[in-house]
Amino acid sequence: MLFRPIGAAGQRKIAASRVAIVGCGALGSYQAMALARAGVGELLIIDRDYVEESNLQRQSLFTEQDARDGMPKAVAAKTHLASANSAVSIRGVVADLNADNASEMLDGVDVVLDGTDNFETRYLLNDLSILKRFPWIYGAAVGSYGVTMTVLPGEGPCLACIFPSAPAGLQPNCDTDGILSATASAIASIQVAEGLKILSGNVAALHRKLITVDLWENRFQAVNPGLAGASCRACQLREFSYLKTNGSLAVRLCGRNSVQVHGGRQALDFSALERKLASHGTVRFNAHVMKFIVAPYEMTIFPDGRAIIKGTEDPGEARRLYARFVGPPSQ
After folding, report:
1. How far from 45 is each of 16, 62, 91, CA to CA, in Å?
2. Residue 163's domain is classified under what CATH number?
3. Phi-psi group of 218: left, alpha or beta (phi > 0 → left; psi -120 to 50 → alpha; rest → beta)
């Protein structure tokens, strides 16, 4: 409140806001910490993954105990943030945001911050942002390089204007090329600042640029992205292709040697599943997640039937393993 551009009136607006963070990794974990401490009214954290030891170098919200327990990131984030600011209502949702659930999950949000690691989900956010007319703040970081842009529906270009299609071929990511934690926090800081400008009613202060940084090469650039593309399939033609269900049951997670398998939203009884799996490998579980190790594979299974299978990048093999040990995934 002592920061004059926000003041008491702006802080009241922030305290009455609803913010969603999609992806609670290197970017999202920092965003969540900053926004919870800034006093947003409701903070929705959506993440499909669990904490691993290799995350801790860049995801400062989590601990070694979270990694040992294989805690879902959304659950661990809620637990830690509740002790940082008890006045904020925090919801941690362990889910894969997709065309089936995005509209319902993000209903009524004031702004969405991008903490994802793939263009498919970003295009989904972009389509829904235009359809529902909520702002979202794109961000990405790998190595020492980061990029961010704020998308205001109806005011300037959207993500599909700037990147009509996802980059082709193998792309660097945190698990293959590493990342400086400073890169993630730098981009996330810009995203949070933009979010607070929107929430506090200071839209005129938005940078309205495509900002890129390379902290190792000491390059900092802010480029005017220009007007919305006249033939943009999203914001001009309103072809929201990423909001259409594609029916995919298994998706390779880039750079992870893992495949995510959807179980068709079947609710699982972990105690019964443990009895089924105990003779095949090592099993441990808590209320949020089950770990099943059957060499050379490791399966992380969630209560809604979704699983991340580490040890293969073949969706067919992942579906076979899921069907063998959990049951046939259903549409």
Report:
1. 17, 14, 6
2. 3.40.50.720
3. left
* Number of domain units in the chain: 2
Interior angle at CA 308, CA 70 and CA 251, nearest 5:
150
Position 331 scores a pLDDT of 47
Q: Give per-residue pLDDT as tens, 18-57.
A: 999 999 999 999 999 999 999 999 999 999 999 999 999 9
- Kindly state the tokens that stand for 137: 């703040």
Asked if residue 330 belongs to a domain, the reply is: no
**In sequence order, what are the beta bridge partners of 155?**
152
* Mean of pLDDT values over 48-70: 94
160 SS3 class = helix
123 closest CA partner among 133, 132, 114: 114
* Maximum C-alpha span of the chain: 64
One domain for residues 85 and 200: yes
Instruction: Quick: pLDDT tens for 216-258.
Output: 999 999 999 999 999 999 999 999 999 986 655 778 786 688 9
The beta-strand segments (E) located in the chain are 18-22, 42-47, 89-94, 111-114, 136-142, 145-151, 210-214, 219-223, 250-253, 258-261, 282-285, 290-294, 297-301, 307-310
Q: CB of 160 within 8 A of CB of 11?
A: no
Domain-ending residue, one of 243, 263, 280? 243
Alpha carbon 326 to its chain's center: 26
Of 115, 149, 112, 111, the C-alpha closest to 25 is 115
229: left (phi over 0), alpha (psi -120 to 50) or beta: beta
d(CA 174, CA 154): 33
Residue tagged 């691993």 (tokens) = 52
- Residue 267: the pLDDT is 82
Pairing relation of β-strands 42-47 and 136-142? Answer: unpaired
DSSP H helices in 200-314 = 270-277
Instruction: Point out the domain boundary residue: 243, 272, 293.
Output: 243
- Output the CA angle 316-244-147, nearest 5 degrees: 85
Residue numbers of the domain that contains 214: 7-243
